[in-house]
Structure to design on (339 residues):
């Protein structure tokens, strides 16, 4: 691999763009293919599908074999609410290799003393760069119980095609949330993307148990189906 | 360590003038410990980051990486129970892996 190709690859990854390195097994010839250029590549649709699946593998084309190494953007998790559950969920998600940020405009909650080792932003979601820059490779968990804080983040997450959206609150609370989102113009299909009540049903009671159920649900959303599901033409 | 850090390390080492090889898992069969696309980066003195297995074959990959850094030729290595080296550097889990080893060309 030429150093120039490696430099470009690292820059594309830093910019959170889906990228693949294609290596001709016989000749060793190598190229970098970005999501926007995949249609023009000789491997075309097969390469596009491979990239969308997020999985690396070998493709054959006109009798030649190619190694395809797919680089999906690193996964992010945004927790809205510097609450008790977040004190467990943030370090657990970090161990699972998520880049975790907590957002909460309430400075009494969003204090360094409560969250010594986590990226913490004492901002309203609308003002917070992680919410302004959500993408498919980001999960969002809404944990404040307060529509003033949760809703703007939820709207941003629905618009950004986040791979996971979870919202804390009872079925009744969620019913009211669905009514507000419907009034804001979202469809019933949009509403099915929200995991609420949040977390897998493992009978969780304490904050650490709820954090476990939420992290399990995030991993389920990530691994149980391709990250980027095929869209029917 | 995250994949990003591994590739950034490869870039840093190469830019600092070291000879560097990149190992990539390109095929797996059965219960291989690391998925296709996993990287191991090795420098000319044998420093390494990342992994291509659960630690079972890294030693052999590192030894071959020094050859790759020396002559610049890419190689494909295969490890598994079907391999005659199975008892030496095979995968204890019973899987098989193919590793593509290439030099970072400065």
């Amino acid at each position: 691999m030429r150093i120039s190709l490696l430099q470009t690859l690292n820059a594309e990854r830093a910019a959170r763009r889906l990228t693949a390195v294609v290596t001709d097994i016989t000749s060793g010839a190598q190229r970098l293919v970005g999501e926007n250029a995949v249609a023009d590549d000789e491997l075309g649709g097969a390469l596009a599908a491979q990239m969308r699946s997020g999985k690396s593998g070998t493709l054959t084309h006109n009798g030649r074999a190619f190694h395809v190494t797919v680089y999906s953007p690193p996964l992010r998790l945004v927790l809205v609410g510097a609450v008790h559950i977040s004190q467990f969920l943030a370090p657990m998600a970090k161990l699972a290799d998520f880049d975790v940020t907590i957002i909460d405009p309430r400075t009494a909650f969003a204090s360094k003393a409560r969250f010594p080792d986590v990226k913490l932003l004492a901002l309203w979601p609308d003002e917070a760069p992680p919410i302004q820059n959500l993408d498919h490779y980001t999960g969002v968990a809404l944990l404040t119980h307060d529509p003033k804080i949760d809703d703007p983040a939820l709207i941003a997450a629905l618009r950004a095609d986040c791979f996971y959206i979870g919202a804390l609150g009872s079925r009744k609370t969620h019913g009211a949330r669905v009514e507000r989102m419907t009034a804001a113009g979202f469809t019933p299909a949009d509403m099915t993307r929200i995991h609420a009540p949040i977390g897998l049903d493992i009978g969780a009671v304490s904050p650490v148990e709820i954090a476990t159920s939420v992290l399990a649900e995030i991993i389920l959303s990530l691994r149980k189906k391709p990250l980027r599901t095929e869209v029917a033409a | 360590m995250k994949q990003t850090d591994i590739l950034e390390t490869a870039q840093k080492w190469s830019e600092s003038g070291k000879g560097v090889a990149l190992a990539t898992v390109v095929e797996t069969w059965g219960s291989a410990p690391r998925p296709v696309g996993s990287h191991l980066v090795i420098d000319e003195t044998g420093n390494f980051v990342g992994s291509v297995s659960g630690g079972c074959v890294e030693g052999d990959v590192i030894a071959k990486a020094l050859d790759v850094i020396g002559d610049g030729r890419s190689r494909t290595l295969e490890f598994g129970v079907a391999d005659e080296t199975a008892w030496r550097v095979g995968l204890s889990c019973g899987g098989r892996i193919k590793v593509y080893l290439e030099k970072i060309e400065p």
About this structure: The interface with chain B takes residues 1-3, 6-7, 9-10, 13-14, 23, 25, 28, 55-58, 67, 69-71, 74, 97 of chain A (CB under 8 Å).
